[in-house]
């Protein structure tokens, strides 16, 4: 079983068994090892993001489906360090009697994974970093800060998106048909090193039947799900 496969099942275990925890305390006062991201009000709806790159068009990024529940949060901050693993799950609000909503995003930073600060200096000892994830309210897109944070190439962070609630009309032509099913099989996590730069495909593992996609993450930037 390779690192990505092991990491995926670790993330799945986290998604299934971890109960919601209150994250209302200030980020500076906590250093969670496992975190269910909820109980934080969403930020103002972001303006439309423009993409000038030719590799991936933002129009090909998945969008939330009609009448799906909102996420429990669109922004969460947490601390990470080399001496402990950190896991975050962002969910949809519960519906139809659910006590816990369906997962939207799961993120794992293994112990020893954080490697370099944005200024290029190596993490040492119990160095820690405050991380903020901001999720687009429409697209399957998350912006990680601080930009430039790097992870160990042999022990990267892992990011998974669950797209059961995505708009099934992937190409936006008004019809859900075999073309959309074909595009679903091409889904991957893509990244942008800086705004207004090209989008590039990240190596990803996509399971159209289970409707999730997972990828190793080596540095912080913007990540999205695209075909």
Write up this protein.
The chain has 227 residues and is mainly beta. The protein has one domain (3-226). Helices cover 10% and strands 31% of the residues. It is built from two helices and 14 strands. Strands 1-3-4-9-13-12 form a six-stranded mixed β-sheet, with helices on one face. The longest helix is centred in the first third of the chain and has 15 residues, at 3-17.
Low-confidence stretches: 16-33, 38-54
- Give the helices and strands as they follow along the chain: HEEEEEEEEEHEEEEE
In total, the number of strands is: 14
| Helix percentage | under 10%
What general form does the structure show?
globular
Topology, element by element:
Layout: H1 3-17, E1 34-37, E2 75-81, E3 86-91, E4 103-109, E5 114-116, E6 128-135, E7 141-145, E8 150-151, E9 157-162, H2 178-184, E10 188-192, E11 199-201, E12 205-207, E13 212-217, E14 222-226
Parallel strand pairs: 1-3
Antiparallel strand pairs: 2-6, 3-4, 4-9, 5-8, 6-7, 7-14, 9-13, 10-11, 10-14, 12-13
Keywords:
31% strand; 10% helix; 227 residues; 6-stranded mixed β-sheet; mainly beta; 6-stranded antiparallel β-sheet
Q: Care to give the gist of this entry?
A:
The chain is built from 2 helices and 14 strands; from the N terminus they run αβββββββββαβββββ. It is globular.
């Amino acid at each position: 079983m390779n690192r990505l496969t092991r990491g995926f099942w670790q993330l799945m275990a986290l998604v299934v068994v971890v109960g919601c925890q209150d994250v209302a305390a200030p980020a500076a006062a906590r250093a969670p090892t496992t975190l269910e991201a909820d109980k934080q009000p969403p930020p103002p709806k972001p303006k439309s993001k423009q993409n000038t790159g030719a590799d991936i068009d933002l129009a090909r990024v998945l969008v939330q489906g009609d009448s799906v529940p909102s996420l429990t949060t669109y922004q969460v901050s947490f601390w990470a360090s080399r001496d402990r693993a950190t896991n975050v799950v962002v969910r949809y609000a519960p519906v139809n009697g659910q006590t816990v909503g369906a997962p939207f995003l799961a993120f794992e930073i293994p112990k020893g994974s954080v490697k370099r600060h944005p200024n290029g200096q190596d993490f040492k000892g119990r160095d820690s970093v405050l991380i903020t994830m901001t999720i687009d309210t429409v697209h399957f897109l998350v912006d990680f800060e601080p930009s430039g944070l790097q992870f160990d190439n042999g022990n990267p962070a892992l990011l998974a998106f669950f797209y059961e609630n995505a708009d099934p009309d992937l190409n936006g032509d008004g019809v859900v048909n075999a073309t959309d099913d074909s595009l679903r099989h091409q889904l991957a996590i893509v990244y942008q090193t800086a705004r207004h730069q090209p989008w590039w495909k990240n190596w990803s593992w996509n399971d159209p039947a289970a409707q999730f996609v997972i990828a190793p993450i080596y540095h912080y930037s913007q990540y999205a799900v695209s075909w």
